[in-house]
Amino acid sequence: MIKVPELKSQYIWAVLLVVYLFTAIQPIGAPFQMSDATIKAHDVIESLPPKSIVAMGGSGVFAFDLESSAAQIAAIIQMARKGLRLVAVPLGTEAVQFEKYCIDAALVDKKFGGPWTYGVDYVVLPYLAGGSAALVSFLTSVRSQVSTDVKGTPIDQLPIMNDFRSYKDIALWTCPHRDFPIIARYVTGERGIPSIAFAQAAAYSLYAVYMMIYPDKIWMTNGFLGGAQYEDLEGISGLGHAAIDSYAIISAVVIAFIVLGNIRLLSTLGDEKEEVKEEKV
Amino acid sequence: MISTDPWVWVSAFMTICSFTLLYGDNILFRIGEYTYTCTVVAHSVVTGIPTITNYFYPLFTGAKPLMIFPLILGIMSIFVVWRKYAWIASFPYALFIGVGTGLTLRALVMTDILGNAQTTIKEAANILVGSPADQLGFAVRVIFTISATIYLFFTLFHKGPLSKPVGYIRTFGKYAFIIYLGISVGNGIMQQSGLATSAINRLIRQWLGL
Fold first, then answer.
1. Which of A16, A129, A246 comes nearest B51 by C-beta?
2. DSSP code string of A23-87
3. Do B48 and A93 touch (CB under 8 A)?
4. Per-residue pLDDT for A94 more than 70?
5. Residues of A in contact with B50 (CB under 8 A)
6. Which residues pair with residue A124 across a beta bridge?
7. Any idea what DSSP says for residue A221?
8. How far A13 CA lies from chain B's nearest CA (Å)?
C-alpha cells in the first residue's frame, strides 16, 4: 500500500501562506455566483425613499470584522448615492471605532468628495452600555440613552437627530457585527423594523435561521463572498473582491488536505491493527 | 512603494508577530498577544469614559435628576472588588441580571422558539409546492428540524414499544447535527481564510506598497 507522508501542521500552513501570498500579489479574478439573499438586501436599500434613516449598530467585533465590513462599506456607498441618512449605534466598546471605520472607508463624507455631511446626513453615537436593556430603552426613546454624539456634541445641535427620536423613525437596521440575535429579537421581532446582517461566514450558518423566521424582514450576506456580491451589485471592487481569489483557491487546497489527511489516517489504521496483533502474540 | 507611516509599520509588525505562531509559541507571538490584550483593555477604558460623561451629563445639568439612581447602583457595583463589602454589589447585579433575563426571555420565546416552530410548520406546507429544488430544500429543513428536536428530547432514552422507530429518528437527528457542525466548520474556515487574506493584503499593499 502507498504510504502517505505525515501531514505536519507547519507544512499545511506553509502551503496556505504561499497560496495567500500568490493570490494577493497576482489576483486571478476567480468567478463567484450571485446569491438571492444579497440581491434582496441590496434591493431593500434601493427601495428606501431619500432621507430615510438607516441605523447601523450592534456588538461583537471579531478581529475588526473586515469580513462583514466588505458588504457594509458597499451598502454605505449605496445609501449615500440614494440620499439616505445613517445613524451609527455602537452597542459594544469596539463597535464605536469599527463603525466609524466603515463610514470613513466608504469615502462618503464631503471631505473625501462624497455627498454626506457629518451631523446632517450621518452621525456616530457613543457606546451604549447595557446590552439588550440599553437597546430596548434606546429604541423606545433615543434621548433617554443618548445626550451627545461620540465627539461630545449635544444631539440637539445635530440636525439628523431632530428627526430621530424613537424606533418609529428607523426605516432599516444594518448590523455588521457578530451579535445579530439581539437585533433580530428586539429590532425586527418585537418592533417590526426590517434588518440586514452583514454577517461573518461563521456567523452566517448560525443566524441564517432568522431569515427563515422573518423572510420579508431579515436579509443576510455571507462573509467576504457576500461582500464581493454586494460590491458587484453596487459596481465597485473592494475588500470582498480582494478576498475572493484566496477563498476559491484555499477552499480547493483545504479539501485536498482533508482528503490527504483521511488517506493518511486510513493507511495508518492497518499498521495499528498489525501492531495490536503483534502485541497479543 | 514601502509605507512611511509609523502606524502602518506597527500594524505590520503586529501582524507578523501573530503569524509567527504558525511556527510555534515564541517571544514575538507573546509580544503581539500581550500588546493586543493591553490595547483592548485600554480601548475599553478610553471608550468607557465618554460613555459615563454621555450618560450622566443630564444629571449634572439637572435635566434628568432620576439618573442619580443608576449612578448610585454603578458605584455600589464597584464594591465587588472588596471581599468584606462585596455584598453591596449584589444589589445592582441582581437588578442587572433580573432585567436582562426578563427582556431576553420575552424576546427569545417570541422569535427563537415560537418563530422557529411557526416557520417549520409553514415550511412543511411548502414541501408540495414550487420547483423540485425548493421542495427538496423545504423537506430537508423540516425533516432535519423534527429529527434533531427528537434527538434532543430523547437524549435520555427510555425503552418501550416505540423505542425502535424513535431510535432510528434519533440516529437520523444525530446525523442532522453532524451535518450542521460540518457546515459550521466550513463557514468557520471561510472566515479564518478571509481574515488571513485581509491581513496579508494589508501587509503587501499598505506596508510594502506592492
1. A129
2. HHHS------PPPHHHHHHHHHHHHSPTT-EEEEEES--SGGGHHHHHHHHHHHHHHHHHT-EEE
3. yes
4. yes
5. 126-127, 150, 152
6. A88
7. E
8. 7
Cross-chain residue pair B210–A148, CB shorter than 8 Å: no
Q: What's the pTM value of the predicted model, to 2 decimals?
A: 0.84
Cell of A232: 458587484
- Can you read off the three cell numbers belonging to residue A144? 433617554
Of A21, A132, A148, the CB nearest to B57: A148
pLDDT at A1 over 60: no
> Between chains, do B190 and A254 touch, taking CB under 8 Å as contact?
no
Q: Closest Cα of chain B to A126: distance in Å?
A: 6
Three cell numbers, residue B177: 447535527
Q: pLDDT for A135-160, tens place per residue?
A: 999 999 998 888 889 888 989 999 99
Report DSSP letters for B131-176, one per residue: -HHHHHHHHHHHHHHHHHHHHHHTSSPPPSTTHHHHHHHHHHHHHH
The β-bridge partners of A195 are A173, A218
A280 pLDDT above the threshold of 70: no
Looking at beta carbons, which pairs linking A264-268 to residues 24 or more positions away fall under 8 Å? A264/A4, A264/A5, A264/A6, A264/A7, A267/A1, A267/A2, A267/A3, A267/A4
CA distance B125 to chain A (A): 14
3-state DSSP percent of chain A in helix, strand and coil, to 5? 60, 15, 30
Quote the CA–CA distance of A3 and A8 in Å, as a whole number: 15
Task: For strands A218-222 and A195-199, give the pairing.
Answer: parallel
Domain locations in chain B as residue ranges: 130-210
Name, in order, each residue with C-beta under 8 angstroms of B29's C-beta and a sequence gap of 6 or more: B17, B18, B20, B21
What Cα–Cα distance (Å) separates residue B2 from each residue in A27, B12, B200, B202?
A: 20, 12, 15, 12
| Whole-number Cα distances in Å, A215 to A172, A199, A229, B181 | 15, 16, 20, 24
How far apart, in whole angstroms, are the C-alpha atoms of residue B42 and residue A90?
A: 18
Instruction: Say which of A23, A185, A214 has its CB closest to residue B107.
Output: A185
Distance of alpha carbon A115 from alpha carbon A163, whole angstroms: 19
| Cα–Cα distance, B198 to B201 (Å, whole number) | 5
Instruction: Label residue A92 exposed, middle or buried (CB < 10 Å: 0-12, 13-18, 19+).
Output: buried
In angstroms, what separates the C-alpha of A5 from chain B's closest C-alpha? 19
Model confidence pLDDT, tens digit, residues A224-271? 889 999 999 999 988 888 788 777 888 788 888 888 888 888 887 766
B171/A114 Cα distance (integer angstroms)? 57
Return d(Cα A101, Cα A116) in angstroms, integer: 15
**A-B C-beta contacts closer than 8 Å:** 156
